[in-house]
TrEMBL record:
Signal peptide coordinates: 1-29
The protein's name: Oxidoreductase
UniProt entry tagged with the keyword Transferase: no
Domain Oxidoreductase molybdopterin-binding per the UniProt entry, residue ranges: 74-144
A Pfam family per the record: Oxidored_molyb
Keywords of the record: Signal
Phylogenetic lineage: Bacteria, Pseudomonadati, Pseudomonadota, Gammaproteobacteria, Oceanospirillales
Length: 170
């Protein structure tokens, strides 16, 4: 298998796991913490990292005040791992951009400069609770809207990717 086929395989395996997960636990419950749910594809030639919530929780926690825009969500405390420190921990170089994809096939590009300016997180908890798929979890890219009200714009709303399942580094 070449790299393209291999990364395609990872995506298929992740999708199958998620489908199995919904069948087994329903969309209403948060998935098991040790289930692989996030694939990070490094730039050219790198081996993908496949991570569970438990893997993300091994990194220092960062909390921000924010909300999922346009869906009637209220400001809450979101806790997760800083995207910048996760990539650093995985030994990945600072990306020029990241393409974040979700379980519903939504995708959006996040400039690497956001990591430096706003330190967005991959959140696995909202007000201390793990998120089910129907709550737009289990993983959400969250920006510190409370700390930086200037982020309350369409541009950052669309980078607030919920049901996150893949990051592609460039
Ligand atoms: N997984 C996922 N994340 C997403 C979206 C989406 O459709 N799917 N839409 C983005 C946009 S454009 C906005 S404004 C907010 C709210 O999306 P919605 O209004 O499409 O529900 O979530 C963002 N994150
Ligand atoms: Mo939007």
């Amino acid at each position: 298998m070449n790299l393209k086929e291999r990364t395609g395989m990872h995506r298929v395996i992740t999708s199958l796991l998620l489908t199995g997960l919904i069948l087994a636990f329903g969309a209403q419950a948060a998935p098991p913490r040790d289930m692989p749910i996030l694939t990070i594809h490094p730039g050219a030639g790198g081996t993908p990292h496949v991570l569970s919530v438990a893997d993300l929780e091994a990194y220092p926690r960062r909390s921000v005040t924010g909300l999922i825009p346009d869906v009637g969500d209220h400001e809450a405390e979101w806790t997760g791992v800083s995207l910048a420190s996760l990539l650093q921990g995985l030994g990945e170089p600072w990306p020029a951009r990241i393409t974040a994809s979700a379980m519903d096939s939504y995708r959006e590009t996040i400039p690497g400069s956001d990591l430096e300016h706003y330190d967005p997180i991959i959140a696995y908890q909202r007000n201390g609770e793990y998120l089910s798929i129907s709550q737009r979890g289990p993983l959400v890219i969250m920006y510190p809207y409370g700390e930086h009200p200037e982020l309350l714009t369409r541009v950052f709303f669309s980078r607030t990717v919920w049901q996150l399942d893949e990051l592609r580094l460039e």
